[in-house]
Amino acid sequence: MGLPTDGATPGVDGDSVNAEQVEEVLDRLREGGGRATTSRRVLLTALFEEGPHRTAEELAVEVQLVAPDVHLSTIYRNLDELERLGVVVHAHLGHGPATYHLASETHGHLVCEFCDAAVEAPEEFFAELMDAASKKYNFAIDPRHFAVLGRCAACAQLPATN
């Protein structure tokens, strides 16, 4: 499937989605010596669409709807490059694979270790922990990268198990 020549960026459903934002990121890639490939354009379109955090495998499915020849290894390489540029952040939400979201959506995560419910908490929520780690241990915490595990309200009502 070719890209439209009118400057629109195809979304997974064929609609034009955040073309300006996609082009800004592609410009950053070009400035660093990278290329604006079809796979990067389609991956960026998927990332800029509304939706939850997604794994590389989930993003690959979305990309392959538009560009079937794009391999999972290409998705991983592109995600690594986009993370290096500060466009995306990956987070480990519990025991599953890493998930990816736009770096502009700065937040941490609270994940129920029983039902896997995830709550996005603003970075400010972690400010005291970040400050304490810095002062006491000379350590800088990045709360976007990990999840704090615990129990959601519904699971907190369940009896404790060993």
Q: What would you give as the CATH superfamily of the largest domain?
A: Winged helix-like DNA-binding domain superfamily/Winged helix DNA-binding domain
Total tally of structural domains: 2
- Global mean pLDDT: 84
Whole-angstrom Rg: 18 Å
**Poorly predicted runs:** 1-15
In percent terms, what proportion of residues is strand?
Answer: 15-25%
CATH class of the largest domain: Mainly Alpha
| Sequence of secondary-structure elements | HHEHHEEEEHEH
CATH architecture of the largest domain: Orthogonal Bundle
How would the global form be characterised?
globular
User: By helix and strand content, what is the structural category?
Assistant: alpha+beta
- Provide the spatial order of strands within the biggest beta sheet: 1-3-2
What CATH calls the topology of the largest domain is Arc Repressor Mutant, subunit A
Helix content: 25-40%
Major sheet size, sense and barrel closure? 3 strands, antiparallel
The total of beta strands comes to 6
- Count of runs of 4 or more consecutive helical residues: 6
